[in-house]
Design a protein that fits this description.
single chain, about 230 residues, alpha+beta, two-stranded parallel ribbon, 7 helices, about 25% helix, elongated
Length: about 230
């Protein structure tokens, strides 16, 4: 499992422009992305500042070519601890912004055109490394959330229904008590249903803000779940 960000509380919160300054060599057109994100955040909701709101929009912004999208590059960087250090200012702003958003307890459904039942056997616990997608009315699953497969039902005709429940993570992304506290408070009531089919339906549990799990390409952009462990 990925290590948490150490000394997260000591990392300063800076403007979005400053937060991406070290990412210019890693993310093509990142300054243009920031400008577009800020255009959408003139009057942000939920008590966020324009910079905080824009950091979330930037995280979910689609770009052309798709592999140059901010979320895809960050997604790949999460596997490289050295490069991840360059993202700390952005992650501080982004995660601090997410912490200001209201938590949502609900069930989220997602269709996937393949059978995922073998990847999610009943009783298996796995970790959500990070999520990446946002259009409208979407759910954000913050990184290093842990899920347990409650059931996996073959309903026939290529339809598999996988139900998952979020459980408390003992290894939060943030290297501080804040991550543990937020996780334990939210995990008390959170549940996830997942439907997988040949036209599969994945349902993933509640979370805070706009996000969701990694599944093969379906009707919405995938997030990242690590394989079951």
């Amino acid at each position: 499992m990925r290590k948490p960000i150490e000394n997260f509380d000591s990392i300063p919160v800076v403007s979005l422009e400053e937060a991406v300054e070290l990412l210019v060599s890693l993310v093509p057109n990142v300054k243009e992305m920031v400008s577009k994100a800020k255009e959408k955040c003139d009057k942000p909701k939920d008590g966020l500042t324009p910079h905080e709101s824009a950091s979330i929009v930037l995280y979910s912004l689609e770009w052309e070519p798709r592999e140059n999208s901010f979320y895809i590059i960050l997604n790949n960087t999460l596997r490289d601890e050295e490069k991840l250090k360059l993202w700390q200012l952005y992650l501080k702003l982004f995660i601090s912004s997410l912490e200001k958003l209201p938590s949502v307890n609900q069930t989220v459904y997602r269709g996937v055109k393949m059978d995922l039942s073998a990847q999610y056997p009943q009783g298996q616990i796995f970790t959500c490394n990070i999520h990446f997608f946002m259009t409208e009315d979407e759910i954000l699953l913050v990184a290093v959330r842990k899920f347990k497969v409650v059931s996996c039902l073959d309903s026939g005709n290529g339809l598999f229904i996988i139900q998952m429940k979020e459980v408390e993570s003992d290894y939060p992304l943030l290297g501080s008590s804040r991550g543990k506290n937020a996780s334990s408070q939210e995990n008390n009531t959170r549940e996830t249903n997942s439907h997988s089919t040949s036209s599969s339906h994945h349902s993933s549990g509640p979370s805070r803000g706009p996000m969701s799990p990694k599944l093969p390409p379906g009707p919405v952009r995938p997030n990242m779940f690590s394989p079951p462990r």
